[in-house]
Design brief:
- By secondary structure, this protein is α+β, with helices and mostly antiparallel strands.
- The protein is 24% helix and 32% strand.
- The chain has helices at 16-30, 46-51, 67-78, 110-119, 147-157, 164-174, 233-239, and strands at residues 4-9, 35-40, 60-65, 88-92, 122-132, 136-139, 142-146, 180-186, 189-195, 197-201, 223-228, 254-259, 261-266, 273-274, 284-296.
- The protein has a six-stranded antiparallel sheet. A five-stranded antiparallel sheet has the order 12-11-10-7-14. Strands 2-1-3-4 form a four-stranded parallel sheet, sandwiched between helices.
- A hairpin with a 2-residue loop joins β8 (180-186) and β9 (189-195).
- α5 crosses α6 (164-174).
- The two termini are 19 Å apart.
Length: 298
């Protein structure tokens, strides 16, 4: 088999990824896995690393880092012609690694991830596409507006605290929540309401362990939409712990929908957060690209 192309973000996990690299290399060697590792210090460098490489030399592209690294690798692969698009593997060595939870992987569970990769069992999965007035990009996990973006920004400021940073940021931002008027169309069905957040999910988890879209499937050709209507702060503090299990969808302030094409518009442009990154703003059209990638899965 051809070697793996591993895109390794040394700064992932607040620099902890680089400290794990010697152990990772040792385990790859023990397993007899051939690979070419390209190290980067910034997720933004990832796309150029992938696009400037002759992918025909490799059997798969491995995103080694956090959600930001995965986002960049996915966007690089989606810009490759489908017939030349390599399977994607995930090596979770970042802070969040929310998408990898759908593979049964916890943060820093890189040894189990390598075991999955070396089995080389590609599975076709969906990818989300976002089109704004001046940008087009892809996401594999989730894209949102509102409270979730504020939580994401606060998480970035305290991410050195590790996996608990997202939960702490969520509690802090909950105290400052502010609904916004949003118009959302799901396959032509219009919803107009004041909403605290909108999450459009391809997979189930966000922020590592929040099961934000418990019924989402990465291969059903649809995106799951989770809306939070205006809610008293004391009520959201009750709702907050239930997101870990996905039972938040049972609360009356939560609405869930499913569709192929979703459009978002707001009175004033609101920032988008795809896969933990801060890119784009409303208005935006978000659609599902069915079976667009091959994912190395258990």
């Amino acid at each position: 088999m051809k070697p793996l192309l591993i895109i390794f973000n040394a700064q992932a996990g607040s620099g902890q990824a680089d400290k794990s690299l010697p152990e990772i290399k040792d385990y790859l060697q023990q397993c007899g896995v051939a690979y070419d590792l390209k190290k980067t210090g910034r997720p933004k460098d990832v796309q150029s690393l992938v696009t400037q490489t002759d992918l025909e030399q490799y059997s798969a592209v491995i995103a080694a880092g956090g959600d930001g690294t995965l986002f960049e690798v996915v966007n690089a692969l989606m810009r490759v012609r489908p017939e030349h698009r390599l399977p994607l593997g995930i090596l979770p060595v970042g802070t969040g690694n929310a998408f990898s939870r759908d593979l049964g992987l916890k943060p820093a569970d890189w040894k189990k991830a390598i075991d999955i990769i070396r089995q080389h069992q590609p599975k076709a999965i969906d990818v989300g596409k976002v089109q704004t007035s001046d940008q087009q990009f892809y996401f594999i996990n989730i894209v949102g507006i509102g409270l979730v973006v504020n939580i994401g920004r606060t998480t970035q400021k305290i991410k050195k605290l590790g996996p608990v940073s997202y939960s702490m940021a969520a509690l802090w931002e909950t105290l400052r929540l502010q609904p916004n008027p949003v118009r959302i169309s799901i396959d032509g069905e219009l919803i107009e309401d004041d909403l605290v957040f909108v999450e459009i999910a391809n997979s189930r988890y966000t922020g590592t362990s929040f099961k934000i879209a418990p019924d989402a499937k990465i291969d059903d050709g649809l995106l799951d939409v989770v809306l939070l209507k205006p809610i008293a702060r004391w009520r959201i503090l009750n709702l907050f712990p239930t997101i870990y299990s996905g039972r938040h969808v049972e609360h009356p302030e939560i609405e869930t929908h499913r569709g192929h094409t979703i459009t978002l518009s707001t009175d004033e442009p609101m920032p988008l957060m795809p896969d933990g990154e801060f890119i784009g703003q409303t208005p935006a059209t978000i659609s599902c690209e069915p079976m667009a990638l091959q994912l190395l899965s258990p």
